[in-house]
Amino acid sequence: MSSVRNFLFIMCDQLRADHLSCYGHPHLQTPAVDQLARRGVLFERAFVQSGVCGPSRMSFYTGRYVSSHRATWNRVPLPLDEWLLGDYLDGLDHELVLFGKTHWLPDEQGLARLGTAQAPGQPARQGGFVELARHDGHHAEPDGPYARWLRDRGYDSPDPWSEFAISTVDASGRVHSGWQMRNVHLPARVREEHSETAYTVGQAIEYLRARGSRPWSMHLSLVKPHWPYVAPSPYHAMYGVEQCLEPVRDAGERSDPHPAYAAYMAHPESRNFAREEVWRRVRPAYQGLVRQVDDHLGRLWEELDRLGRWEDTLVVFTSDHGDYLGDHWLGEKELFHDCVQRVPLIVYDPSSRAGATRGTRSQALVEAIDVVPTALEALGAELPEHRIEGRSLLAHTRDGAAAPARDAVFSELDFSFRQARLDLGLGPAQCQAAMVREERWKYVDWQGLPPQLFDLQEDPGELRDLGRAAGYEPVRSRMRERLHAWRQDLKRRTTVSLGEVERKTATHRRAGVHYGLWDES
Asked: Which residues are CB-neighbours of 70 under 8 A, at least 6 positions away?
């Protein structure tokens, strides 16, 4: 019987791996995340399946690559036939409760086609989550639980998120919009204990207290440090620019850039982050938001201690992608540089077999799709190998477990909804890109556009694109073949298990079907 009774899946939004002290930041101290790393295994080379929130999260939740689950961007619903983590856990009598955001959208067309359209609050419209306190945190939700909670605490407004949580106030009492990055050096109007991070973690803690010793599974999905980069006092002023990492970029990147890269550099957020004054103002606030997340995770760790839940709870901590913050002359995320694709990933396994790996750092290449099989194996479920494309990470946490080596990771982008598509003169069906990253080489295949290639050994900062450079065609050709092989291995037959295929192979005669005979009996 498994020693794991509970599963805690913590995800930050837009958190770069290099903005945690256990991942090497020299000034931003994150003691709670560091403590988790000492308890578990820290994966140095964890990568997402997309640099966009929605498709990345759907890969985390399904254990499948973007090409397989098909929710390719934020506005693209996950098809109704896809299974999510909550669906699998439901089969174990483990409801998956949600505190925070998911980016999951219901497949309204699929539901209508089947005549099974459901009202909000029913499982097929919640992505397998029991939404106890959903809060997406990047647009106004005036009727959402966080807005109602704020009003109960005296924030008298039809839209307290916009007016208080992401608005700032200066010394004279003048209010400024947090949507304008020039204002993020000022504190939020909301008190720290009423901020988004404090609210979401607090709601999760209340649930754990009420749950007692009964088993549970929880997705604690924090909206920060995602924009708006507005931090409450004292976190807004906790760091100075001298304590921030400088952007990784080079003037040569702007000379004859790849067409898609050039189009992204022309986006307003990128033009702004290319300016010195912008990244110097935003990065300290971003660090303050990270530190605030860490402090509230410390509250959660204390509650797990008090309840004795470290003894039987699998904990996974990660992020859905990183943030450029001016790296490579870009803002936001989406493209394939490591500052976006590489994320923190720490796994705490309470099993007695995990003793020897506690506090270790793994150099294995791992992916977002590995979380689902990790949770299912830990909770004692049979892995649906005909659907799941990830690999359980328990092979890296437990003594004697075989950990098959992965030689590459993969990520995808559909930029059809972005201004870059219009600037490039492309149609909505001409905007696919896919990345394969090996030990030394990173290759990006762009639909209808030249490829990109980076030599990570000689150019770890990814400052020189060799996609069109002479002398590298053998490498590009091999990497194209690697992508082709990966696409061939995607799991498209999802309605029958591998065991069922085995049992039904070459059984047509037993079913009374005798085609192709001449005189055989």
From this structure: 76, 78, 79, 82
Measured distance CA(177)–CA(163) in Å, rounded: 8
Nearest 5 degrees, angle CA 175-CA 176-CA 178? 135
Helix (H) or strand (E) holding 34: helix 31-39
Residue with tokens 């913590």: 10
Distances from the Cα of 111 to the Cα of 9, 63, 104, 353, 361, angstroms: 28, 23, 15, 44, 44
- Give the torsion through C-alpha atoms of 30, 31, 33, 39, to 10 deg: 160
| pLDDT tens digits for range 62-83 | 999 999 999 999 989 999 999 9
Write out the DSSP string of 258-295: -HHHHHHHTSHHHHHHTSHHHHHHHHHHHHHHHHHHHH
What would the pLDDT profile of 230-286 be if each residue is shown by its tens digit? 999 999 999 999 999 999 999 999 999 999 999 999 999 999 999 999 999 999 999
Three-state secondary structure readout of 368-417: HHHHHHHHHHHCCCCCCCCCCCCCCCHHHHCCCCCCCCCCCEEEEEECCC
DSSP designation for 69: H
Place of tokens 């909206």: 223
Neighbours of 406 (CB within 10 A): 14
Token pair for residue 7?
């599963």
